[in-house]
Amino acid sequence: MSLPNLSLRNLNVKYPIIQGGMGIGYSNYKLAGTVAREGGIGVLSSAGADLIVSKRHGKKLKHREAIAQDVRDAKEEGNGGVIGINIMAALVKSWEDSILGSMDGGVDVIISGAGLPLTLPIIAATHPRYDEVALVPIASSGRAFELIIKKWLKSTDRLPDAVVVEGPMAGGHLAWRNTEEVDDPKNKLETLVLEVMEVAKRYGDIPVIAAGGVYGYEDIQSYLKMGCKAVQMGTRFLATHESGASDTYKEAINASTKEDIVLAKKPGSPCGLLFRVLKDSPFYQDALERVRAPKCTKGWLLNKKNECQAKLSNEESFCICNGLVASSGYEKNEKELYSVGDIAYRVNETISVKKLMSELTNG
Ligand SMILES: Cc1cc2nc3c(=O)[nH]c(=O)nc-3n(C[C@H](O)[C@H](O)[C@H](O)COP(=O)(O)O)c2cc1C
User: Fold this and answer.
1) Ligand 1 contacts CB of residue 235 (under 6 A)
2) Residue 1 forms part of a structural domain
3) Comparing C-alpha atoms, which of 160, 85, 84 is closest to residue 118?
4) Same domain for 144 and 233?
5) CATH number of the CATH domain containing 217
6) Is 228 in the same domain as 289?
7) Are 236 and 323 found together in one domain?
8) Per-residue model confidence as pLDDT tens digits over 237-268
9) Is 256 in the same domain as 240?
10) CA–centroid distance, residue 309 to ligand 1 (Å)
């Protein structure tokens, strides 16, 4: 059975497949552009864009300019396809510049999670392209989604154009702080999807998008049957030729077994959320052995006091940003840190986006 199109605000997308934003530097303009060209939504990541895009273009760009340039590059690569950007609400310092810069560059969709994107429409409303851009929060419970909706309606009268429900099998940061919650059956993606769908229906049937653990065509069909309008996938796209992950990162994914995939906690991510990694990533091994002194040279993931937790102690957390940037080749003096989703052990070959999209869209 062929996959249906995805309607999102004013957009008509050929396939209901969103390549999830993956920072830092993995979902680059090449990956996002190629996915868009192949009929899905290609999504950039705002994390570290000033560093990455400045290096790529050989000139120092401010964050807002860098984001706009990244979107233009992806649009060009995507040949008219649909381009989104993932903006983490936890990246407080660059939050506003990321939203406005992506809109300057012509982005079609803004997807935002890792914290509650409560002010997203307020900031977007100050831009002339406000009506053209789809605004999509990520939520991991019906309660969080309803909170976002109420705040958006109160401040701007705008409803989310869709919602991504991210479950506990996803790569990167999870919505939960402890492993008991991750293992709790009530937090299974299928259960969360139904919970969020109930809220979505009450506000005019907002499209629901499932994320976390989607591997192939069959999974996509099964979420569509549940009533989802699309899926968002990260790990499968990470292991493509076009992604910005280093070759050693892709090789580590291909060689991984189920036992290699762990949730980093104590030491974990400085933002306190669980973070899924490959146990043998060199940077994580150093963190486990406390070899790396408390240190942060980026200051992207700050707490309420504007401090990076990883700078204060190496017992509770470690500086993930440096390790992540090293794994996309933009930090030569650091070891690599590999974040993956729970399905990474099922991936054993790096393929092209074209081949992956063909596999995902043909049963
Ligand atoms: C390496 C990696 C980095 C990620 N970075 C981000 C990010 O910066 N912001 C975000 O909201 N989600 C991030 N994600 C989550 C993905 O966008 C996606 O929702 C998730 O990986 C879906 O689960 P899957 O990997 O099982 O397909 C990341 C995932 C991975 C694997």
Assistant:
1) yes
2) no
3) 160
4) yes
5) 3.20.20.70
6) no
7) no
8) 999 999 999 999 999 999 999 999 999 998 99
9) no
10) 22
Per the domain annotation, does 173 fall within a domain?
yes
CA of 21 to the centre of ligand 1 (A): 6
Q: Give the CA angle between residues 82, 14, 219 to the nearest 5°.
A: 105
Q: Tell me the pLDDT tens digit for each residue of 80-99.
A: 999 999 999 888 788 999 99
User: Are residues 161 and 267 located together in one domain of the fold?
Assistant: no
Q: Is 199 in the pocket of ligand 1 (CB under 6 A)?
A: no
**Token match 């150093």: residue?**
286
Atom index in ligand 1 nearest the CA of residue 340 equals 31
Of the candidates 172, 218, 171, 214, the residue with the CA atom closest to the CA atom of residue 189: 214
- Cα–Cα distance between 171 and 130 in angstroms, integer? 30
Q: Which domain holds residue 330?
A: 247-345
| Widest pairwise Cα distance in the chain | 54
Regarding whether 328 and 192 lie in a shared domain, the answer is no
Q: What pLDDT, in 10s, does the model give residues 287-342?
A: 999 888 777 777 777 777 777 887 777 888 888 988 999 999 988 889 999 999 99
